[in-house]
Amino acid sequence: MRKTAVIAMAALAIALAATGCATARDPGGAAGAAAAAAAAINPALNGAWAFENGAMIAFDDGSWAEFFPDGEPYMMGTFTTDGGVIFLTVAQISGPFMAEMLGVDAEPRWHSLDEMRGIFVEIMADYGIPAEAAAEYFDHRFGLFSVPYSVSGDALILGVDFLERM
Asked: Strand 73-82 to strand 85-94: parallel, antiparallel, or no bridges (unpaired)?
């Protein structure tokens, strides 16, 4: 399990470096720079954490990425903490995840939220949903969201999910 955690953390670092995603160490990144630079980050979260279904999430000093059970990353962004709440911002989504979520062909690369929002709005227009309503729904679903958490040693409770450090 530890080898998978190292691979997950390495994949997170490579993906963040390749895409310019903001981190607390690099607040000049493309997404969430101001929030990451000014906000608190609980270092106890750093590392890779396994969900019961085999998926995992990795935190690294203000950046996060979520992985399918096969270890493939599908979503990443930045995070901050305040007390017992973690605030997550989605910055990028993988092509395969975007294809699965929206039922469209998507290049196998990282896509910005703006790209995904545009495709989502187009799809919803085909169903008669106004662009403004579709964009608002999308932003609500993928914008900044908060989740209560507690971490103690190798145990993390994230919302209603129990995770173990890898």
From this structure: antiparallel
Number of domains in the chain: 1
d(CA 8, CA 49): 10
- In angstroms, rounded to a whole number, what is the distance separating the alpha carbons of residues 89 and 136? 16
Handedness of CA 44, 50, 51, 52 (dihedral sign): negative
Backbone angles phi, psi at 133, to 5 degrees: -65, -40
Phi, psi of 28 (to 5 degrees): -85, 5
Q: Which two tokens stand for residue 52?
A: 């019961």
Q: What element of type H or E holds 101?
A: helix 95-102
Tens digit of each residue's pLDDT (9 = 90 or more) over 73-119: 999 999 999 999 999 999 999 998 888 888 888 888 999 989 989 98
Q: Structure pTM? A: 0.73
159: tokens are 């919302």
- pLDDT of 102: 81
Q: Which range of residues forms the domain containing residue 141?
A: 2-165
Q: What is the mean pLDDT of the chain?
A: 81
**Which of 86, 17, 83, 74 is closest to 46 using CA atoms?**
86
- Cα(51)–Cα(114) distance, integer angstroms: 28
